[in-house]
């Protein structure tokens, strides 16, 4: 990812405009079990000598086939890209066991982001620290021995010093070429399964705009390819990965990179972009709480552009990072889980149909590395299934039952994605078609009798979970949730510490609006009343409060502000703030 949010999620990439079945910890599923679950086991491990030189299994002949064999890929994020060292950003030291686990879970490639800026000496030779280089080589060799395709790069160097290229051309180019000369020499005789990526998310300071910055990327990519090719050995035909400016999927950025490919006329080049989804949805701002048409069209548009610009011309594409910007296990609830699953399913499907290889950005939020387990088994299962088939979804994965009202029937719209509906189950028990539920077209209705049984004693929160099963793919789980309208209390505080006492009563927060008395948006991002989840506000369900962050108040004028809290049940609760300097008073409606 890029400079912003680099440590936490690796922006946890800059964004233009603004993915196991766990048998037991450490166990490896048999290949047959993987195949039955729709996993791609991939080719067998390379036979690699201790020095990492080529004794590799036969590779597919064309670059397109070689990149296709990398699908799916996984990023060893916030590790060797961390500053200053491998464990600085909270991940444990990388082990052969980790790489074996990743391979056993169906991943065929690994991207190892590496930041070099703190691990080399001064000009003019910029000698790489031997201990650091040996450690990178060790992990590369372990990965190759597991049969993984491997990609290494210059990572946060992009914003630490490469970004000054427009104004310090000679200095930056010398440093850049000296680093790549040393890396190319070190890995010259390594397996063809090792790829080099020139720069992660190139970005520049002091240019007149994107057109000039495109030219900077062009110059650095040219220098990289020509330098690596001149070192011979496997580097003469090694797959080299070239990014767009910011690794953006915008058409103008792809066109600029295509010009570079045309000038180089080298068949062993790969284009790379990053994809973190439609920004309002990816961070939950501006009311972007749901996987809607905007999110879908952003996937389609980006992937179609990548296909038409590169793949249709025989140029392979690697989406070197993908996820959602705000998906972070330390900050749960920013994106509702069902909406998250819809996004992951769609990305897997649309990438597959457009022959794009994807590499999941994982800085620790998907795979819990210390004990080798997926933090959310359902997400992994859905991602694995998306490699070979679609999974159906629904308009929501929640059905809310208000405790203050009689229980009635509830409906959801099914998104079949070309699959056949096979029924509803609660655990191993099938629900009865016609008595517990009815399907008419795409509408699924759970009867009032079924809802009463499922809600049980109607304690606040999740009372039961049922799943809709289809002809293929992962079942869609539906939670039955009992709630009452959340209540809030008056309070006082300051712009540096303000918490609204909130009894959530089984409900959960979706988003928050902030407006002045005249109806204009209050606070940051004043082009929308809907503020950014977690950055500007944060629910703490255990403590029974909603926190308003200093970042929110930093851009709030003195006077009255009306907050509207939107909950996933559809309930809205209004709260009034009065700000005077650093003092804040809050009152419930």
Account of the 3D structure:
The protein is α/β, with parallel strands linked by helices and 589 residues long. The protein starts with 30 loop residues before the first helix and ends with a strand. It folds into three domains: 31-385, Glycosidases (TIM Barrel); 393-483, Immunoglobulins (Immunoglobulin-like), CATH 2.60.40.10; 487-588, Immunoglobulin-like (Sandwich). Strand 9 (367-368) and strand 10 form a beta hairpin. The protein has 14 helices and 28 strands. Helix content is 26%, strand content 24%. Strands 1-2-3-4-5-6-7-8 form an eight-stranded parallel β-barrel, surrounded by four helices. Residues 1-30 form the signal peptide. Keywords: Carbohydrate metabolism, Cellulose degradation, Glycosidase, Hydrolase, Polysaccharide degradation, Signal. Pfam families: CBM46, CBM_X2, Cellulase. It comes from Paractinoplanes rishiriensis. InterPro entries: Carbo-bd_X2 (IPR005102), CBM46 (IPR040946), GH (IPR017853), Glyco_hydro_5 (IPR001547), Glyco_hydro_5_endoGlcnase_B (IPR016282), Glycosyl_hydrolase_5 (IPR050386), Ig-like_fold (IPR013783), Ig_E-set (IPR014756).
Briefly say what this structure is.
Belongs to the glycosyl hydrolase 5 (cellulase A) family. Pfam families: CBM46, CBM_X2, Cellulase. This protein is 26% helix and 24% strand.
